[in-house]
Recover the amino acids of this structure.
């Protein structure tokens, strides 16, 4: 699933759409996570994109009136095409058409979505989300306050979008390794010093991943069809049975909730 660094990379990759008018919306398959509204075309066509923002793993295209919200689900791709005659491929579900470009959405598993809203602050998709991990309100004090009564594993907690948004499985594993904290620890066992280190580690890992264009493991591509490179510097993610770069101990894998977790039992306590 594309996570925060991947969505941020795509956001930056389509930034040149700001100032462009939407000329058309072509829907080939409206059966995504939520059925595409039959009014969507009328809602967005002939409007100009004012800004492109990211909230958690959602892209927000601000229009002259209203917003388009896009989520890529498990396998979605957004590609900005400069050649409007580019052949349509299987799973190309919709195109947002501009004068000289097309923003094309491909999604084999169809867990993504596109919706229109007058005000994203009132959207049920966004209004209960926690703070952004790269913003100033995500502090160690905030985190320790959220963890103090939580007995769930710390990895599950930092992946909870009600606590902090956008820290998906890859980046939770890598952040906890950098902070030297076991993903199996109860949230309420994290000390103030550890919370401070974890906040710094989450920020560093996410910033580094954005710099490298995210992680391409299966489906993810950048908006120009390129690949991310952060997977080349993963320390623990998907490295079960391999030697830890820091100490040589074999990386372990454990299922936590719905996700596989990877960690070094020697470095992470």
């Amino acid at each position: 699933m594309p996570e925060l660094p991947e969505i941020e990379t795509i956001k930056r990759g389509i930034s040149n759409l700001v100032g462009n008018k939407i000329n058309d919306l072509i829907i080939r398959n409206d059966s995504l996570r939520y059925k595409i509204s039959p009014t969507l075309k009328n809602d967005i066509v002939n409007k100009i994109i004012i800004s492109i923002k990211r909230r958690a793993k959602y892209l927000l295209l601000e229009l002259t009136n209203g917003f388009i919200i896009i989520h890529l689900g498990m396998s979605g791709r957004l590609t900005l095409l400069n050649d409007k005659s580019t052949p349509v491929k299987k799973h190309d579900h919709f195109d947002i058409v501009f004068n000289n470009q097309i923003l094309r959405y491909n999604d084999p598993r169809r867990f993504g979505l596109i919706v229109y809203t007058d005000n994203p602050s009132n959207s049920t998709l966004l209004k209960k989300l926690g703070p952004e991990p790269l913003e100033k309100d995500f502090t160690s004090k905030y985190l320790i306050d959220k963890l103090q009564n939580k007995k769930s594993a710390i990895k599950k907690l930092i992946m909870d979008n009600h606590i902090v948004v956008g820290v998906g499985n890859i980046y939770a594993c890598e952040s906890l390794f950098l902070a030297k904290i076991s993903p199996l620890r109860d949230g309420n066992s994290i000390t103030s010093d550890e919370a401070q280190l974890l906040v710094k580690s989450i920020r560093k890992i996410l910033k580094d991943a954005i710099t490298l264009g995210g992680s391409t493991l299966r489906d993810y591509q950048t908006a120009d069809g390129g690949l991310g490179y952060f997977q080349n510097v993963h320390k623990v993610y998907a490295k079960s049975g391999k030697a830890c770069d820091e100490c040589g101990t074999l990386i372990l894998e454990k299922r936590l909730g719905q996700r596989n977790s990877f960690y070094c039992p020697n470095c992470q306590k």
Observations:
- The mean pLDDT is 95.
- Strands lie at 24-27, 49-55, 58-63, 67-71, 77-81, 92-97, 102-106, 113-117, 252-256, 259-263.
